[in-house]
Amino acid sequence: MAEAAVKTQPETTAAERELTDGFHLVIDALKLNGIQTIYGVPGIPITDLGRMAQAAGIRVISFRHEQNAGNAAAIAGFLTKKPGICLTVSAPGFLNGLTALANATTNCFPMILISGSSEREVVDLQQGDYEEMDQLAIAKPLCKAAFRVLHAADIGIGVARAIRAAVSGRPGGVYLDLPAKLLSQVMDAEAGAKSLVKVIDPAPAQLPAPAAVKRALDVLKNARRPLIILGKGAAYAQADDQIRALIEKTGVPFLPMSMAKGLLPDTHPQCAGAARSTVLKDSDVVMLIGARLNWLLSHGKGKTWGDPHSKKFIQIDIEPKEMDSNVAIVAPVVGDIGSCVSALLDGIDGKWPAPPADWVGTVKTKKEENIAKMAPRLMNNSVPMDFHSALGALRAIVKERPDAILVNEGANTLDLARGIIDMYQPRKRLDVGTWGVMGIGMGFAVGAAIETGKPVLAVEGDSAFGFSGMEIETVCRYNLPVCTVVFNNNGIYRGTNVNPAGGSDPAPTVFVKDGRYDKMIEAFGGVGVNVTTPDELSRAVNKAMDSGKPTLINAMIDPAAGTESGRIGNLNPQSVVRKK
User: In the predicted model, is pLDDT for residue 2 greater than 60?
Assistant: First the structure.
């Protein structure tokens, strides 16, 4: 009788099963892998993806231009060691994001550009779809990896592959192509959940060979004029304690590249930043940690380096192909920076010999000479300001607020700030990096404020600000603690050039005279301030940083201040032919 009472449950029909779609699977895949923020610009076909992501608890930061959203995602990757996500529409929006993607790849920032796209069958037959473009083919040469997902069941794998590609080995930019039809594809929810992939150990440690570590230590120990150069790769690694221990244990002078400033304070007694020319030219052994011998270091040769045959280079890098890229590397150490530096520390047995006293003394003397020579220019309170007096005021503010993040771009504004403003904590200076590309300012400022919650001081040349200035509205919309200072000298490099033909048009490098950038932010509810002296600048920045309110300070600089192309004028070819 008991058996007869058992009723068989009918099977669930296909119509009754719970379903999901591509929109939900993309969001679920991102959340499963710890993605908390998306930067982007809404539009066809990804508008609902952004709305639904926000509803699902992901923070969605909407920009006015995709390049700036991409820059925010890229700097988020640098600061967190997780891929920053940029979401764009198809074709033009995708193209706008490509500069940021390529820049992220060049700078080794982990970032994923996700773009909606036209359907494959229409693109391949060139049938003229809305914003039709073979985006995958265009993206491939400009990033570390590129993937396209055609089926909802593959979304989990596609997201996982993009994440692993972005952060493993040498980090970089990745493109993920999502055709519009994919997002509305429907599948069984249970099967969809099973298709998602949580990436395990996406950036595993890569240990250096013991023989390589010993070789590097032997070369460094026998140096008479050793130097350690820290690059932004060292900052990205977040191996701060190990790097500091290595430098202090060896006693070797160190030179930080701009985005590595603050790994050890610029005021550290071993910092050779103020003696850069001397240590590059006169050193005999140079250890590179997360730095590359590219144009920023004159490719490791030429007059910057003195006699190239008298130098030996040790290089720590996760990419074997980086070795010998410009000069011979006598002691390559291949692996992730944290593991390599730890191995070097372990290999230092007993008391390490201090660098020769004459070398340390030479570096110290040159530092003191250059600092003393610069001091009067930084203290000048003249009107109008020049770059040195304005940066001198900001230098004091950063010293008092070492936890604030400095974003910096421009020509003279960037080049001079690198040497004038000391940094005291790691990953607090964000600038144009390897490519020297202008326009990163507001994207980096927004990304840094969102990811860290720290106050941001964005120091912009007036030309550089123009590339991303509309994002001032984004800063106000999200009420971010960003104080933007525009160094306004009425033009690119300077504002005194004239039209050589004598016509009514201004010279190509000249802007509207005495423009009021501070009025822009007032249109969106932020605080605008116009200043003409270092004292006024100091008071305005301190007030802005104390308040945390979105602020734009228009800092009037002498129009005649500034040099052609800043400190890289040698890269700007000059015509030697004058047409009669």
Answer: no
d(CA 6, CA 8): 7
Q: Measuring CA to CA, which residue among 548, 350, 536 is closest to residue 457?
A: 548
pLDDT tens per residue, range 213-244 = 999 999 999 999 999 999 999 999 999 999 99
Q: Parallel, antiparallel, or unpaired: how do β-strands 331-334 and 312-317 relate? A: parallel
- 134 phi and psi, to 5 degrees? -85, 80
- Quick: pLDDT tens for 545-565: 999 999 999 999 999 998 887
Domains and CATH numbers, the chain: 19-195 (3.40.50.970), 210-364 (3.40.50.1220), 380-497+504-566 (3.40.50.970)
What is the DSSP code string of 53-72?
HHHTT-EEEE-SSHHHHHHH
Buried b (16+ CB within 10 A) or exposed e, 53-73: beeeebebbbbbbbbbbbbbb
Mean pLDDT of 255-276: 98
Tell me which residue of 137, 121, 131 sits closest to 181, measured CA to CA.
121
CB neighbourhood size of 216 (10 A): 24
Whole-angstrom distance, CA of residue 311 vs CA of residue 226:
10
Distance separating alpha carbons of residues 175 and 22, to the nearest angstrom: 18
Euclidean distance between CA atoms 209 and 163, whole angstroms? 27
pTM exceeds 0.85 for this model:
yes
Average pLDDT, the chain: 94
Answer whether 575's CB lies under 8 Å from 507's CB.
no
The residues near 570 (Cβ < 8 Å, ≥ 6 apart) are: none
Nearest in space to 343 (alpha carbons), one of 333, 352, 353:
333
Rounded CA-CA distance 286/382 in Å is 41
Per-residue pLDDT of 521-553, as tens digits, reads: 999 999 999 999 999 999 999 999 999 999 999
Indicate the pairing of strand 186-188 with strand 19-21.
antiparallel
